[in-house]
Specification:
InterPro entries: DUF2726, UCP028063_topo_Znf. This is DUF2726 domain-containing protein. The protein is of the alpha+beta class. It has 5 helices and 7 strands, in the order H-H-E-H-E-E-H-E-H-E-E-E. It folds into 2 domains: 42-158, Trna Endonuclease, Chain: A, domain 1; 167-210, no CATH class. The chain has helices spanning 2-22, 42-55, 79-90, 120-136, 151-158, and strands at 60-66, 93-99, 106-113, 140-144, 181-185, 195-199, 208-210.
Length: 226
């Protein structure tokens, strides 16, 4: 019994000394750090700049955002299950997040396809991103690196989720015949409730255009799906 008591005392003294003289000596000032460099590589940076140009003043673009800064598992009575769900996203991130310019609330998640071959890690990450975005109700856009040079196409991808047109710029002219265009709201189909422009010369001219589409000067307009 006395031997056990002595062992316990020795252990307590050992932990006390370790905590007081060893752990406390490890101060942050003892370590030196250096910058890793740019947050984005050249191709990622080019896409980021195109995305910022496409969004303009209508949103804020953030890059490599930790998933846990954007989403969180639903509350559950099973704490172990909650921690497992949280650990699944703790070490992952979104390539780009477009937020509301005033509240910084995430509006759209954008994942960049860098053109490299799919490996096991990349496939698993894609599955995770698709699942968490669907679960959280966050729009997810997959974009190719080629869009770094096609700002107009980026705007079209974003148009369904961010209002890219100012109210005082709603007057448009048909790019097919030059007649004034009329703003309407889709009443049926996949685009029900979404605004779009239609030529005022219908049915003689059937050209229509998404309300949010902003064409580049060197782009040719395409027929809308409405």
């Amino acid at each position: 019994m006395i031997n056990i008591f002595i062992v316990v005392v020795i252990l307590v003294v050992f932990f006390y000394i370790t905590q007081k003289y060893v752990l406390k000596q490890e101060q942050p000032s003892q370590y030196q750090y250096r910058k890793k460099g740019s947050l984005l590589n050249m191709s990622e940076g080019a896409f980021f700049n195109a995305l910022v140009e496409a969004v303009g003043q209508h949103g804020v673009v953030l890059a490599k955002v930790s998933m846990t800064s954007v989403i969180i598992p639903h509350k559950t009575k099973n704490k172990k299950q909650w921690f497992i769900a949280n650990n699944q996203i703790a070490k992952s991130y979104f390539d780009y997040v477009v937020c509301d310019s005033r509240t910084l609330e995430p509006r759209v998640i954008i994942e960049l396809d860098n053109g490299r071959e799919l490996d096991k890690g990349k496939i698993e990450r894609q599955k995770l991103i698709i699942q968490v975005c669907k679960s959280a109700g966050l729009p997810l856009i997959g974009a190719n690196i080629k869009l770094s040079y096609q700002v107009g196409r980026l705007r079209r991808l974003l148009a369904a989720h961010i209002d890219l047109i100012e109210p005082d710029k709603e007057v448009r002219f048909c790019k097919r015949c030059g007649a004034p265009m009329v703003l309407k709201i889709a009443t049926q189909g996949e685009f029900k409730g979404r605004r779009f422009f239609t030529c005022s010369r219908q049915p003689h001219c059937t050209y229509t255009e998404n309300y949010n589409v902003v064409f580049e000067e060197n782009e040719h307009p395409e027929q809308s799906d409405y």
